[in-house]
Specification:
Blueprint lengths: L2 H10 L3 H12 L16 E7 L5 H14 L4 E7 L6 H14 L5 E7 L7 H14 L4 E7 L3 H5 L6 E6 L5 H7 L8 E4 L6 H15 L7 E4 L8 H10 L4 H21 L4 H9 L5 H9 L1
Parallel strand pairs: 1-4, 1-5, 2-3, 2-4, 5-6, 6-7
The structure holds guanosine-5'-diphosphate and magnesium ion (MG).
Length: 291
Amino acid sequence: MTEKEKLLHSALEGSRRDLSRLLSMIEKGEELSMPEREENPDYMILGITGPPGVGKSTLVGRIISYWKERGKKVAVLAIDPSSPRTGGALLGDRVRMDSANSGEGVFVRSLSTRGNPGGISASLMAMSKLLSCCGWEKIIIETVGSGQSEIKIVAFADKIVLVDGPDRGDIIQAEKAGIIELADLVVVNKSDVPSALKVAENIRSAFSFSNENDSPEVLLVSAERNDGIEEMMELIQSSESPLWRSRIKIRERLLSLWDHRLMSSPKLNQVIDDIETGSISLEDGLDILSG
Ligand SMILES: Nc1nc2c(ncn2[C@@H]2O[C@H](COP(=O)(O)OP(=O)(O)O)[C@@H](O)[C@H]2O)c(=O)[nH]1
Ligand SMILES: [Mg+2]
């Protein structure tokens, strides 16, 4: 057995330490061949995304408790855009999620977006697969941002929740950019702050103008006061993606894998050199990399 196979074996047997090591390897861009996960109707990858400060981590804490109370094993991958300045935020997230939710059935891991040669989405996909092989039924991915690229990161998730808060209304911008189409549910957090109502109303009316009758539901919750969480979880679990949304997700997944394949090719540097000197065309380069 190679070192990696040993680690995998031990992670599959339940070693959290070796699971962590393997996650680090994937984070650095290493490939890992994993067994197919067992079919399990309980299995879910849930993407939680939205601007900083809207309460995603607090919400994730509530979701962990919800599932934990129902006997599920929950793993969290939390992404922090890695500038040295956010070091504190990263730690803060960890503490917030850990204080209420530590112990056997919960696994929390913060990740940086740096040093990801093949793209963060592809490595998150691989990490989620590893976690599920190791028996983690519910996998929550927290990503920061309301831009197109940030939301696409979680296109591989089974369910995607966009979170907004009372002061920003970023989701309206997202709606204008057409990227809301990936979301299964929009959650406006901090319903205890009066202006949250207005934000939720604005989002709903933006949807009603966009003549899609299957635009996502908009739900007001308060993560801090534990208000609306059950309803949110029921909506998450019962929401069915319309066909067009499933197709958009599949398209985004293909794009992520494509990126990953090109960027992690051992021939990449050579191809760039050859394009630079003019000895091959861009199209030739693409053929070599994707071959
Ligand atoms: N008033 C209010 N504050 C909240 C609520 N949920 C989270 N917060 C606060 O919002 C801030 C940012 O929360 P955090 O979960 O770190 O947001 P994230 O950056 O989206 O992960 C913290 O100070 C939280 O205590 C809520 O429901 N109501
Ligand atoms: Mg957070």
